[in-house]
Predict the structure.
Amino acid sequence: MNHSGGERSNRFPPFDFWTSNWADRLLLPGLYRPGGFVYVLVSPNFVADGVSRSTRPESTGSFIEMSESSSRSLKLPTASEVIVFKDSASACRAAADRIADVIRQVPCPKLGLATGSTPIPVYAELVAKYRSGSLDFSGVHSFNLDEYYPISPLNDQSYRWFMNHHLFSHVGIPANQAHVLDGTVPAEAADEHAAQFERWIESAGGLDLQLLGIGRNGHIGFNEPEEMALAKAIDLPTRRIELHPVTRSDAAPAFGGLDHVPTHALTVGTRQILKARRVLILAFGANKADAVAASLQGPPTAQVPASLLQTVADRVVWLLDEASAARLVGS
């Protein structure tokens, strides 16, 4: 698979081929063609990754005991809950349980979904729940946070490919209810596509739950660090953005080198993220510790986008492992 995102590959078939010749393939919404957005068809040769189910570790007792002694809670005014788990697998199980509760309890739930390595075990847990018959995705409407630009959905680094690989193709979610920003729209249509994606979220009634990860530089989605007033920073729309150097550097190994990493992306903005009725943010590993500390214990600022979650603290739950929580005061 070609990892280059900088130029649209001539190896990929034209839109008309995608929309007419693969009747036995997976239906995907959202590609642009003159006159509107259409469905495309992509092979669903995907298997969800497994997740370790190691024995839940005992708590150290430094914080309030929770969840069968597998976690502890840190009381901070900047979030509704900050829960520290001994390992990321336990945190991912807890995240999947919370998402499953929303799916079961909210009619036609609207989920904002994240990508990257962090939520992969969460999606594996959700797939397992679906396969066990305990979870039904037929009424779920999902809206993914972001997508590289430009990139084909056939590229194994695209987030459309990622979501089909780890979730969509395994849980029976109707294709026209699984929304991902389209990395193939022509440049002149990108702004309108982003605006339309935002209107889709609004017309659906907003997000019942937004799942987030956090970048090393504190980004959420592809809302990257930048200088701007707080009032503007918390009201950013869905849009095309230029990727931060740290973001591109972190993505370089997956793309086969920095030169192959797209320079731009499409992202849901802070406006819709902060309007979500529940926000669940995950962070694992020592390389996220500085960003977590700045987000929870520094001031809300556009220079640390995840810190903007403080402005809706009563709706935000952080699920961390010990390493990512290491720089929090009192941890």
About this structure: The chain has one domain: 71-321. The CA atoms of residues 157 and 222 lie 15 Å apart. Residues 88-105 form the longest helix (18 residues). The two ends are 43 Å apart (CA to CA).
